[in-house]
Amino acid sequence: MNDKKLRLIHTVCGCVISAALIVAAVCLIVSAYTIYNLGDSPYTPESIGAEYAKIAVPLGVAIFAVIAGIVLNILLPMPKIKSKSDKDPFIKLRILQKKLGEGNETVKIKREREFRKLMRFICAILCLASFIPAVILLTWFDHFTVDNLTPALLETVQLLLVGVVVSGVLLFVLSVIERKSAMHEIEQTKLAISSADKSDKKPVKNNENKVKIARLILVGIACALIVIGLTQDGFYDVLQKAIRICTECIGLG
Prior knowledge:
single chain; mainly alpha; 3 domains; 9 helices
């Protein structure tokens, strides 16, 4: 079996599992809501069992679908998707960043990265703000009375759907903006790599040689000063001062 057919089977299986789980979740919510409206508190196991017996079929289908998906993943694992760096700008950008190296970014490259970070922050703030009305309504407990339960739940669901739609649109716009920004950064990174390749590397070697010569000169001066100090018996003065500190100040001896 080729990879295309295997991916198609996994896709169909995933859609079936998702649909079965959604149907089972909706049935559970409807059953719980029905039990609540019956008003038979305290609820007996018989009443709850009778209500949940009506949704045994969708629950069984959902459980069977999940088990079938697990077996499918074990027997026919999903083939690995090969990354196409030519089509994905972010993968191509990572490859070029490694080639350019850290610390060699130009001002334009840094601006593109800062722009993407700013856009992500703005998108996150707007996504959170889109759910604020639903959160405020959920925390308004007086609104969820017995007489007003159904309208309050419908209003909450509507606000949640508005937040989901707004967040989806914002994420789509963010993905488009980030893709364009990545393409601009790819162009700037290519220019930086080409300019780095064309630059002459001899001055770097000359600078390294100058540093080595300076180190040798400093080592020679240090050795000369040590020899001069030894010939003038300067270390005796240091030794006598150390003995006086130990015997007089600290009190040893």
